[in-house]
Automatic annotation (TrEMBL), chain A:
InterPro entries in the cross-refs: Glutaredoxin, GRX_PICOT-like, Monothiol_GRX-rel, Thioredoxin-like_sf
Origin superkingdom: Eukaryota
SUPFAM superfamilies: Thioredoxin-like (SSF52833)
GO BP term, example: hemopoiesis
UniProt keyword terms in alphabetical order: 2Fe-2S, Iron, Iron-sulfur, Metal-binding, Redox-active center
Protein's UniProt name: Glutaredoxin-related protein 5, mitochondrial
Organism, scientific name: Cynoglossus semilaevis (Tongue sole)
Gene Ontology MF term list: 2 iron, 2 sulfur cluster binding; metal ion binding
UniProtKB/TrEMBL annotation, chain B:
GO cellular component, one term: cytosol
Protein name, UniProt field: BolA family member 2B
GO MF annotations, alphabetized: 2 iron, 2 sulfur cluster binding
One Pfam assignment: BolA
């Protein structure tokens, strides 16, 4: 457990390495024929679809390869430590309607925001605490994702 | 201590019956742009983390509109005692 906390401290240090992840296409609204993120009124409906489309969805500032905010970076680093690379990320800085829309949708005032299986998990503080108390490993397991930290822990025992 | 930090603390103490509140202005030049809060309240008892955070967010909804970043830690009095003794 202590090693987990140390690892967290390490990952939260500014300038730490950034892992490349697959990124969902945030410019869907530019694709002809798709209404995604296009109309302000439809954003709620669109978000309801977006959060269910992938097992893990992150709304953040910047993208995983270049987070534009320390809190968004923390979420990316925590997921990286658990070996979660395959998640959809949406850059709220690229779309003001998305930025406000997701706050309204989740009834949550800040970015980043994390969704598992369409369900709101929380922001940076919650993900960090779930990481520290071990809940994150369990929640990932429910999604069918085996945390990379489980293997690391077993090896170090 | 900035005025806004005081305001946040008062509100949390009053509305969430918090027994202990620490509010810190974490913005670079103490310009009240970002805050970090520790809230200890018996009202958190038996509630999951997300719900506790939502209680704080609701309590400070007005103030949070003007605040750029807000970190929070929510503990029950029991958890707070335990943390202090560690």
């Amino acid at each position: 457990m202590n090693s987990l906390i140390r690892a967290t401290a390490r990952c939260l240090r500014p300038g730490s390495a950034v892992y490349l992840t697959r990124q969902a296409d945030t410019r869907m609204c530019l694709t002809p024929g798709q209404r995604f993120l296009c109309s302000a009124t439809g954003i709620k409906k669109d978000l309801a679809e977006i959060v269910k489309k992938d097992k893990v969805v992150v709304f953040m500032k910047g993208d995983p390869s270049q987070p534009m905010c320390g809190f968004s970076n923390a979420v990316v680093q925590i997921l990286r430590m658990h070996g979660v690379d395959d998640y959809a990320s949406y850059n709220v800085l690229e779309d003001q309607r998305l930025r406000q829309g997701v706050k309204d949708f989740s009834n949550w005032p800040t970015i980043p925001q994390v969704y598992f299986n369409g369900e709101f998990v929380g922001g940076c503080d919650i993900l960090l605490q779930m990481h520290q108390n071990g809940d994150l490993v369990e929640e990932l397991e429910k999604l069918g994702i085996r945390s990379a930290l489980v293997d690391t822990e077993n090896k170090s025992k | 201590m900035s005025q806004i930090a005081d305001q946040l603390r008062d509100k949390l103490t009053k509305e969430l019956k918090a027994v202990h509140v620490e509010v810190e202005d974490t913005s670079a030049n103490r310009c009240a742009a970002s805050f970090k809060a520790l809230v200890v309240s018996p009202q958190f008892e038996g509630k999951p983390l997300l719900q506790r955070h939502r209680m704080v967010n609701t309590c400070l909804a007005e103030e949070l509109k003007e605040i750029h970043a807000f970190e929070q830690k929510t503990l029950t009095p029991e958890q707070w005692e335990k943390q202090k003794s560690q």
